[in-house]
Amino acid sequence: MKTSTADLYDERGDELASVSLQFQDLGGHVGFTGPIRTVRCREDNGIIKSLLNSPGDGAVLVVDGAGSLNTALMGDLIAGAAVENGWAGVVINGAIRDRAAVAKLPLGVKALGSNPRKSAKDAVGEIDVPVEFGGVTFRPGATLYADEDGILVEP
């Protein structure tokens, strides 16, 4: 991403939604942008694994894990699949694992934190539905902009 989120907000103002929830930058790319795909799940990463193992075409996967830090929703293997399949980034309202390995991947990753504990693999959840956290509704197809300052979303 060439324009910072701060400059983008200065240019476009309230036509962009600003996510108030504070995320950690955990991937190798801090700045990333792309069209949104969504997943809603809690402590189960089966759907996330399936999606990130499919073509991403520069999209950003936004995962509403209900803010749970009890289990990790993504680790280095799934993040590696995201890189191989052309995803620009992943934003997780929850935890990841394998932080050191994920930090070396050319992928934008924002999450609340980390936990080494694996999640369930039952593929329970919803795909491409509006999800909401941090005061913003993330709709499939909208554009997400992320960098060190935070996350902006085009409604």
Structural class: alpha/beta
- Proportion in helices: 10-25%
Order of helices and strands: HEEEHEHEHEEEEEE
Silhouette? globular
* Uncertain regions spanning at least 5 consecutive residues: none
Mean pLDDT over all positions: 97
Tally of helical runs: 4
Biggest sheet layout:
9 strands, mixed
Radius of gyration: 14 Å
**Could you give the count of β-strands?**
11
Distance between the termini: 19 Å
- Strand-residue fraction? 25-35%
List the helices and strands and how they pair.
Elements lengths: L4 H8 L4 E2 L5 E2 L6 E9 L5 H7 L7 E5 L11 H9 L4 E8 L2 H5 L4 E7 L11 E2 L3 E3 L2 E3 L4 E5 L2 E4 L2
Parallel strand pairs: 3-4, 4-5, 5-6
Antiparallel strand pairs: 1-11, 2-6, 3-7, 3-10, 8-9, 10-11
Explain the overall architecture.
The protein has 155 residues and is of the alpha/beta class. 19% of the residues lie in helices and 32% in strands. It contains 4 helices and 11 strands; from the N terminus they run αβββαβαβαββββββ. Strands 1, 2, 3, 4, 5, 6, 7, 10 and 11 form a 9-stranded mixed sheet that branches. Strands 8-9 form a two-stranded antiparallel ribbon. The two termini are 19 Å apart.
Explain briefly what this protein structure is:
By secondary structure, the chain is an alpha/beta fold.
Structural descriptors:
155 residues, alpha/beta, 19% helix, globular
